Amino acid sequence: MTSSVLELQAADTMSDQLRHRREVLAEREQVQAAKNALLRWNEARTVVRRRLDELADEIQRIEDDSAKLDQHRDRLQAQLKTVIAPREAEALQHEIATLTTQRSQFDDAELAALEEHSRLDGELDELLAQEESLTAEYLGAESALAEAESDIDGELARIAERLKGLRSEVDKPVLRRYDRLRKNFVIAAAPLSGSRCEGCHLDLSAAELDEIRDTGAKNDGIAECPQCGRLLIV
To answer: Each residue of 165-174: pLDDT tens digit?
Structure first.
């Protein structure tokens, strides 16, 4: 039974290592990196599109305001032609000049908005051109991760089947003790190597060794390490 306990520990250790390897696969980091790149790309695309919509609304607003201003200025200019009183004519001319200044400001604002819109339009085209490659990179990384996980899952399944057989070969009291120890230690059962417990790697005294060997002789080669409490295979 002692060999079964050590084989059980070896299989459990291998299973632990495989699960850990599954969690820290380099492919998993590559998937996250590709996903982050896609998220950043999508955020940039959203920001650019939102700003383009804002600029389109702004340009339309400026054009509407400019049209209204032009109509008002045209009415004032027509009215100016009919005015005889100098003071009234001067007031109209001042108002027309003010409207002309405002119209110039509208033109400047529209030009700036159009230039920004054109620049962002180019940025959006560049972003959209990246979509296919970024998506392909992400899907490729996911596929590589799935393949790596599948390989490990296959090994874990084979070990799980072996563990069933090994557990059936160990006496139930010993198995219960082993399972309790496994909750606290990665290594629950270890061999005695000379005077050293290979679980805690501590050397045992001569008196402890005599007691362990005596216990092992009575219990099919299984004792308990007085230092760490692990199952000690003599």
So the answer is: 999 999 999 9
Q: Which residues of 19-50 are buried (b: 16+ CB within 10 A; e: fewer)?
A: eeebeebebbebbeebeebbeebeeebeebee
Measured CA to CA, the distance from residue 56 to residue 45 in angstroms comes to: 16
Domains identified in the chain and CATH numbers: 18-168 (1.10.287.1490), 173-233 (no CATH)
Residues 6+ apart with CB under 8 A from 79: 92
Cβ neighbors of 5 (< 8 A, separation 6 or more) are 170, 174, 178, 189, 222, 231, 233
pLDDT digits (tens, 9 = 90+) for 177-188: 999 999 999 999
Length of the chain: 234
Tens of pLDDT along 31-44?
Answer: 999 999 999 999 99
Distance CA 59, CA 69 (A): 15
pTM of the model: 0.73
